[in-house]
Amino acid sequence: MNQPLGDFPGGLKLRGHKKRSTQTPIRKTPLSRHLILPLQQHIGAAAVPVVEVGEKVLKGQRIARADGHVSVCLHAPSSGTVVAINEQPIPHPSGLSAPCVTIETDGEDQWIARHPVDNFRAISPHEIRQIIRDAGIVGLGGAGFPSFIKLNPGVHHTVDTLLLNGAECEPYISCDDMLMRERADGILDGVEIMQHALRAREVILAIEDNKAEAISAMKLALAARPHLTETRIVVIPTRYPTGGEKQIIQVVTGKEVPSNGLPIDIGIVSHNMGTAYAVGRAINHGEPLISRIVTVTGTDVTHAGNFETLFGTPISELLAFVETRREPDEPFILGGPMMGFNLSGDNLPVTKTANCILVGVEDAAPKTEPLPCIRCGDCASVCPASLLPQQLYWHSRAKDFDQTRDYNLFDCIECGCCDYVCPSKIPLVSYFRFAKTEIMNQERERKKSDLARERFETRQARMEREQREKEERQRQRKAALAASKAKKEKEAAAETTAADDKEN
Amino acid sequence: MLTAIIALTLLALLLGLLLGFASVKFKVEGDPIVEQIDKLLPQTQCGQCSFAGCRPYAEAIAAGEVDINRCPPGGESTIQALADLLDVEPKPLDEECGVEKPKMLAVIDEERCIGCTLCIQACPVDAILGAAKHMHTVIADECTGCELCVEPCPVDCIDMVEMAQNPNTWRWPDPSHLQLERGGQA
Questions:
Q1: Is the pLDDT of residue A497 over 80?
Q2: Sorting pLDDT into bands at 50, 70 and 90, what band is B185?
Q3: Residue A163 lies in a domain
Q4: N or C: which end of chain A has fewer CB within 10 A?
């Protein structure tokens, strides 16, 4: 039962800074007048709106449908009227805009008819996945990958272990911690459904040892469900970045996910605790994903805590609610201090992937001009993916992207450990992000140019064929003309001969 | 003496046969240089290099008839890649051919289009859709931004617009240019 824990290379012991946001229970963010809902809050194709401007919508009503396989639906988080479907600034490091549906709420918060499933064991895993997809559920840990895909093992794989990720290793963030403390039962509802959908042999709930209250709450909830014999809680040491999918699998099972592979390749599927809770709400209560728990914390926040926030709520309103010392338009961090990114702009909405809003970081590194790399190698010793950040840095900087690929750039999880330890304060992760998007762009360009070449060649071939056909037709016409001419001449000649014969 | 000669002759014959067989059986279709050059060109088919498309230019480069710096859409990175491939010194872009511009997209003002089909005939990649006396439109995903459709239009209804970035195609900036603006990392 108690198999020894595994380990991953590198990593860091960081100060948690979590006390600040775990002193108060989860509170609800007040309903905002306007909710701005980006159509793409997940990895994959953007959803397609199914409502029109001026249309009345109810809370939980579908406002956009999934487009293609890797996509999910989007729902109205509260009742009101659709006032705009247009481009709006979204919380993205680019600061660009994207298509959004804006709803003006009416304050009634009136639900649409909900259809809970009475007994999820009576319906097939396929139906469960369909409900989860229609409920718009994506991974709430941060990446936002559509959950129904991760609940489909496919025909070639069997799932040995369903791993629930309750590590939440990044400093300041505490939304999963609070969720486990307060809604352990709801999480287990979702876990049972997930296990049923995946037909997983065992379930492991992995929680870091700095969350004692969450562990006891989960243990209590689990003890109340004696039928879950193959579900257990594993307490893992607190270390950054244990919460990374590949890292937590290594810690809990000792197995390593292959490079370019997925956890399912080694019989493991991992989901976030928040996602499990959302799955439980969707199946047992018929509620689509319309809100999430967001940690709002930082040294400049007066009433830090965790807030159940409807999607589309402007972050500025959330910040006003908790009272901050932030000036308007001053940047804040979306995500944690290690992996998050700076955002500014006040009208950005809370989306499905927004786990934490951080205003003011204690012992933040002063912004200094980076010094030259001294090749100390500290970055390599903390890298949890066993990469060589120093080599990747040289090649990214020289824009030698083929080399960065050879050094497995795409195995980098952008955890920021290398940045943290670099004595020269080189923004290594920024270089890796730059190189990754450049490579992806090159790939897109290459695909586009291949398509253009193909189309050009097809057109050339078609034009040549048309030319040939034209020539052929001309030749045929000429031949026909010549033939008829010859025939006429022959007839004329025959006539003259006949006439001559008669004369003779 | 004789045994040695016979043995060596036999050995030579045997190995010769083996090599001959191997050269036929395991013949490697070498990637011809034209293909390799063509792969590096952006396939805009714009003709700014004075050749009728990317492939003819690739053929001319392979024959050593022209320089490698005549492709404005490819710009510096293409010249660099060609220089690496052909092992020659990279040169700055030949200004006679044009200047490097951001990626463009042709957009037809559908109000003004008279449906003359001249742009359809000019498009090297069949990216314009329409029929005689009917409005034409550009298939944005297929347009290479070559500008060849702009000139033939009798009513001047085609505009070249810069391709807008969206969050999915956005690229992180090069940190070596803006190291002081870094943020988010504590």
A1: no
A2: very low
A3: yes
A4: N
B184 → closest Cβ in A333, A441, A452 = A333
- Range 280-299 of A in CB contact (< 8 A) with B: none
Chain B interface, mutation test: which of A90, A422, A448, most B Cβ atoms within 10 Å? A448
**CA distances to A84, A280, B23, B124, B146 from B72, in Å:** 41, 56, 42, 17, 10
This prediction has a pTM of 0.85
Are A382 and A278 in the same domain?
Answer: no
Cβ separation A98–B171 shorter than 8 A:
no
A393 and A16 Cβ atoms separated by less than 8 Å: no
Tell me how far apart the alpha carbons of residues A200 and A194 are, in angstroms, rounded to a whole number.
8
CA distance A425 to chain B (A): 10
User: Based on the domain organization, do A284 and A415 belong to the same domain?
Assistant: no
Using the Cβ of B175 and the Cβ atoms of chain A, whether some distance falls under 8 Å is answered with: yes
Reported as a single tens digit per residue, the pLDDT across A44-77 is: 999 999 999 999 999 999 999 999 899 999 999 9
Whole domain around residue A145: which residue ranges? 19-30+124-334
- Cβ separation A96–B173 shorter than 8 A: no
A326 and A389 co-located in one domain:
no
Write the residue in B172, B180, B186 that is nearest to A434 by C-beta.
Answer: B172
Q: To 10 degrees, the CA torsion angle through A79, A82, A83, A89?
A: 90
ipTM, 2 dp: 0.81
Here the CATH number for the domain that contains residue A315 is 3.40.50.11540
Answer yes or no: do A411 and A311 share one domain. Answer: no
Query: Is A225 domain-assigned?
Result: yes
- Residue A115 located in a structural domain: no
CA distance A391 to A377: 10
Do A382 and A326 share a structural domain? no
Residues of A in contact with B43 (CB under 8 A): 448-450, 452-453, 456
* Closest by Cβ to B43, choosing from A364, A456, A460: A456
User: How close B95 gets to chain A, by Cα (Å)?
Assistant: 23
pLDDT digits (tens, 9 = 90+) for A150-177: 999 888 888 999 999 999 989 999 999 9
Q: Is the pLDDT of residue B180 over 50?
A: no
Q: One-letter amino acid identity for B86?
A: L
- Pairing outcome for strands A34-38 and A56-57: unpaired
Count of domains forming chain A:
2
The reply to whether B177 touches chain A by the CB within 8 Å rule is no
Domain contains A301: yes
